[in-house]
Design goal:
The structure is a single chain. By secondary structure, the chain is α/β, with parallel strands linked by helices. The protein has one domain (about 5-235): 3-Layer(aba) Sandwich (Rossmann fold), CATH 3.40.50. The protein contains 9 helices and 7 strands. It has a 7-stranded parallel β-sheet, sandwiched between helices. Strand 4, helix 4 (about 100-130) and strand 5 (about 130-135) form a beta-alpha-beta unit. It is globular and about 45 Å long.
Length: about 250
């Protein structure tokens, strides 16, 4: 397999860490961004202990200039980005009639606008080299909606709109663009939910359990392969049967 450079935003989170591990084990060079230096150093030390080498670059995905600088730094240290996983995301939950503008914009900026900010500096290089893999990490709630998450659901749904437009524009340039929409996964964020609430969520999942981060990472890794070169504009739902929309 050809070794390529992969950039995974939000790589220090639960799903992000699994994606970083999986892409590195596939033989790629892997980079990620960070905002909190102390957290990033602790995470990097854990990766080193596992024998995983990761290029870490400081960048706020909400800042277009910082994302341009991040892409340049990754290229200097690891090579041009051929695989991009737009994974960074946050929640600021509230019912819409109580949601303030900051809660709305923080989520839209981090989950959706970041897709522009991070993808724009690398897309021209992919087109010039006639090879690229871009994967958006959306959510089940971008497909079905969720009470108290109008901001998050709108941003996550918008990510797939971004995917299908970008897929059409770049298919003839050897670039595939796809979306992965996880259901409820056993990350720190989900495990922080009160146990009685988690039990109600699990009760609605036909498989009968939460997902594992590595299950999401496996799907992402598949989309980055040569064997997946005829798949573009797809939205792969990975949710244990929780939502089965067309």
């Amino acid at each position: 397999m050809t070794q390529r450079t992969a950039l995974v935003t939000g790589g220090t989170g639960g799903i992000g860490t699994a994606i970083v591990r999986t892409l590195w084990r596939q033989g790629h060079k892997v980079a990620t961004n960070y905002r909190n230096e102390a957290k990033a150093e602790a995470w990097l030390q854990k990766m080193v202990e596992e024998g995983i080498e990761v290029c870490m670059v400081p960048a706020d995905v909400c800042d277009p200039a910082a994302c341009t600088a991040m892409a340049a730094a990754v290229e200097r240290q690891c090579g041009p980005v051929d695989i991009l996983v737009n994974n960074a995301g946050i929640t600021r939950d509230a019912t819409f009639h109580k949601m303030d503008y900051q809660q709305w914009t923080e989520v839209v900026n981090t989950n959706l606008n970041a897709c522009f900010n991070v993808t724009r500096p690398v897309i021209e290089g992919m087109r010039a080299r006639r090879w690229g893999r871009i994967v958006q990490i959306s959510s089940i709630n971008g497909q079905k909606g969720q009470y108290g998450q109008a901001n998050y659901a709108a941003a996550k749904a918008g990510m797939h709109g971004f995917t299908i437009s970008l897929a059409q524009e770049n298919a003839r340039h050897g670039i595939t663009v796809n979306t992965v929409s996880p259901g409820y996964v056993a990350t720190d964020m989900v495990m922080a939910v009160p146990e009685e609430v988690r039990e109600k969520i699990i009760a609605r999942i036909p498989v009968g359990r939460l997902g594992r981060p590595d299950e999401i990472a496996h799907a992402v890794a598949f989309f980055t392969t040569e064997e997946a070169s005829w798949i573009t504009g797809a939205n792969l739902a990975i949710n244990g049967g929780h939502y089965m929309g067309w």
